[in-house]
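User: What would this chain look like folded?
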Amino acid sequence: MPSPWPDREPTAAERASYAGAKVTPFWLDDLPGTEPAPPVEGDAETDLCIVGGGFTGLWAALHAKARDPERDVAVLESETCGHGASGRNGGFLLASLTHGAANGRSRFPEELETLERLGFENYDGLRRDLEAHGIDCDFEETGDLTVALEPHELDDMREEAEDMRGLGHTVELLDRDQVRAEVSSPMYLGGLWDRTGAALVHPGKLARGLRDAALRAGVRLFEHTAVTGLGAAGAGVDVATATGVVSARRVLLATSAYPPLLRSVRRYVLPVYDYALMTEPLDAARRESIGWQHRQGVGDAGNQFHYYRLSADDRILWGGYDAVYRFGGPVGDHLDDHDPSFAALAQHFFATFPQLEGVRFTHRWGGAIDTCSRFSVFFGTALGGRVSYATGYTGLGVCASRFGAEVALDLADARETDATRLRYVRRRPVPFPPEPLRSGVVRLTQNRLAAADRREGRRGLWLRALDRAGLGFDS
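Assistant: Here's the prediction, encoded as structure tokens.
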């Protein structure tokens, strides 16, 4: 079966639509300037040193101070807070801790009901925290809409709706006319609207709000402070930087897709690059032409899928589809500009919304996703329990990072909780193979996922073998 996407090279007009776009994340470019925190200068001491100033690190810092206001907490960030994945994602806030109910049921069937409960509790706790800390991040509780572009995806949606209802979700199955009445696209055949535990945020504003709240709580923040290594030092840990050493009783690592500071973690994390475009604000006529009055976050249902949503000023963020892994897994700003991905995204955007012909993109950017083989955050400790970590969110970390931060903090504090007793927390995912086999496995798997999309979702021998092994990839 042919792909629903155009089988041709992008046109000159499609390429021109993003040619003048700034190569920077819209969410960070949309923030007012702020004075960065100073870097570490010389040696310092702290009770808890958190490495990484993204969502996980900032939530961990806030909760550490809430548990014990007298505890000295220091956050070390190699750039500025929110510079990495936290400021580059789509801003989809989803309660699931398992990358959806289907993935959770396939990997943690005996724990899924508990994980769903913990996910809803975390989502509700996040909403309360936003209010308590006065964080304005354009929070919109719109629900999440998955759209079918192929007939076989409709059967999968019916099964998924039944499963989700059994787990306490309020979901609505939409036929072709109903889904097009929600968002007007000639490509849609149906949809599944999950109204439970699903919202949108401005991720840059969320990161900035968490940063400001942490500073108000008394957290010490050091930006432009790259950590170069960890080492046991007596009963604590020495955290080495280029400009000094921070001696800490406990260390919490929140480095996302950046190279893990613990060698033992590196085989579990695969940095996969995702790319996105942001349009100019839509005028009234264009806005009316697409409907979208309920402003849901949208994703299509293929293995290679797009995610898209409206911003507060009626721009459309359009991202996904390509998942680019490069040999050795490099991460850095030099990889933000990738013309083949932007060309495909622009082509697919205008195929989805032909009524928006002539719209221009103002921003284009990329960012690395900390992929792991189970598609959801995993945890661990090192150096006799003095170091804990949470990583591997695989693209659904905006909400789950708050949960990940709390669990990593529980591990650092040696607290036993409902979460820390779960196999979900106690076991790590299946590791990825080393290079050069790793690159070969990624390329083959991406090829077979695309083939499954062309063959009505039927998974071939390779994908079925990965399913049995508990090793997977996701775009």
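Residues 112-132 form the longest helix (21 residues). If you want, I can go into more detail on any region.
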